[in-house]
Amino acid sequence: MTPEPYGPAADSPLTLAELAELEATLLPALERHHLRLLAHGLRTLQGISRCTAAALELGPLPDRAAIGAWVRQQPPIADDAAFQAALVEQLVATGRQLESIAGALGRAPLALELADLSAWASRQADRRLGLGDTSRG
Predict the structure, then answer these.
(1) What is d(CA 16, CA 95) in angstroms, rounded to the nearest whole number?
(2) Which terminus of the chain, N or C, has fewer Cβ atoms within 10 Å?
(3) 53 confidence band (pLDDT: 50, 70, 90)
(4) Greatest extent of the chain over all pairs of C-alpha atoms, in Å
């Protein structure tokens, strides 16, 4: 599924269909919340990559400088340097987690799909609840 350019609202990188897909999972609340955060981070990092490249490169994550430049351009937080710094740190941390998930799949982080994140979240829920095979991802 190709995301809409700016999501269902100007402040969301996820489409309404993507949000519905995430909410439709049978995951426990904790994993579903984590899944939404990862999906939002993935789409945001893909958007940042689009801003810094001629086309979406489904490969490496944008670097800290590119993330920082993008964050500083967001009007709702233009006057809040502390929030900007925190958001950069959160996006960098999300990128590390996406790299880990993608690495286990032999893929680039920006090439991840929401289905990949859902499968990862399901494995995490199974592990936390003591169910199923805990040797994967």
Answers:
(1) 23
(2) N
(3) low
(4) 48
pLDDT band at 117 (very low <50, low <70, confident <90, very high): very high
- What is the band of 7 on the pLDDT scale with cuts at 50, 70, 90? very low
Cβ proximity of 104 and 137 under 8 Å: yes
Q: Does residue 116 carry a pLDDT above 60? A: yes
pLDDT value at position 134? 47
Q: Which helix (H) or strand (E) holds 31?
A: helix 29-52
Domain ranges of the chain: 29-129
- 58 three-state secondary structure: coil
**Does 137 have pLDDT greater than 90?**
no
Task: Report d(CA 100, CA 50) in Å as an integer.
Answer: 22
Q: How far apart are CA 113 and CA 31, in angstroms?
A: 17
- Of 8, 72, 66, 82, which is closest to residue 40 (Cα–Cα)? 8
Q: What is the dihedral of CA 90, 91, 95, 98, to 10 degrees?
A: 80
Position 69: which residue type? A
Q: What count of residues does the chain have?
A: 137
Name the amino acid, one letter, at 2. T
